[in-house]
Amino acid sequence: xxxxxxxxxxxxxxxxxxxxxxxxxxxxxxxxxxxxxxxxxxxxxxxxxxxxxxxxxxxxxxxxxxxxxxxxxxxxxxxxxxxxxxxxxxxxxxxxxxxxxxxxxxxxxxxxxxxxxxxxxxxxxxxxxxxxxxxxxxxxxxxxxxxxxxxxxxxxxxxxxxxxxxxxxxxxxxxxxxxxxxxxxxxxxxxxxxxxxxxxxxxxxxxxxxxxxxxxxxxxxxxxxxxxxxxxxxxxxxxxxxxxxxxxxxxxxxxxxxxxxxxxxxxxxxxxxxxxxxxxxxxxxxxxxxxxxxxxxxxxxxxxxxxxxxxxxxxxxxxxxxxxxxxxxxxxxxxxxxxxxxxxxxxxxxxxxxxxxxxxxxxxxxxxxxxxxxxxxxxxxxxxxxxxxxxxxxxxx
Length: 397
Fold this sequence. Notes:
Elements: H1 2-10, H2 12-24, H3 30-44, H4 48-70, H5 78-97, H6 102-131, H7 136-144, H8 146-162, H9 167-188, H10 198-203, H11 216-237, H12 239-246, H13 250-278, H14 280-283, H15 289-300, H16 306-333, H17 338-365, H18 370-396
Helix pairs in contact: 2-6, 2-7, 2-8, 2-9, 4-6, 4-17, 5-6, 5-9, 6-7, 6-16, 6-17, 7-13, 7-16, 11-16, 11-17, 11-18, 13-16, 15-16, 15-18
């Protein structure tokens, strides 16, 4: 705890910047977008299935677009890049508030997914990873806490405000709040407060050389990064169907999911010290083990208490992974081309979130049992664990 206090004392601006950049990326995250869906269905006159198809297409398209813009964090000062991305997010939210037709909604959602879920998160993690070396783990862990904090606060805040005014005005007020908090932080990030890396500046000339895409290490990291979003997004989306097959009531789903949120936050908190002590590369395979135990338990047992245990273990892997994966990218590739590398890997992560639900939905439609689904998830996790373990051996031998 002393080290955390010391970090916050020495770098209050950068820690606040990273935390709130992650926090306000939530404008483009699925949990926040879902709060607005009922209003759009009524006002624009689209069906749930039409929105679902549109949202899936937008998610994939924004993920594929991310590398085009994500690499520029390697080529310009963090303050300028952050300001561009944040203003892009605010304009995206403004477009959403004005959406009164299908085309405006389509454009607003694409931009808010690109700038929110994609580039805001990318900027926060990459920027902090570039600026910190010895204390990178703790810095990434603290700033990553912006995600669970937003999941806890923003839905309640939006519900409270929208009960008093329209959803459009509620969204505008939240955007103004983010402007009030974020702009002073971004403007105060001056060049002398950034860790200037001459190798990073020199490396920026290799704009078109994505040679890392041909390396085995990149695809070993990519397989790991794809896995958890692919599995967890699908399971969370169909958690009530899973509970129904197991014979558990809906209220038990809500109770069980709270364990995910709790253990996700706790694991993010502790991941920083672990990374600084052991390095991201050493931890990279092992953060998957709690998820492997979770899928195995769901395969073998039907007791209702398995579900909160399952979500608790999944939360541990999710929390540890959120910081370990970024630390690994910085350790393997350095900071010179970290933005470019991470933008491609972020694309793979988002594609995982888009691919998981239709795969699980198809399996459920053909009456694939939940036990077989969980067994398949356990086997897939074991395969990726071994792939990641081999990467660790190759890097440290």
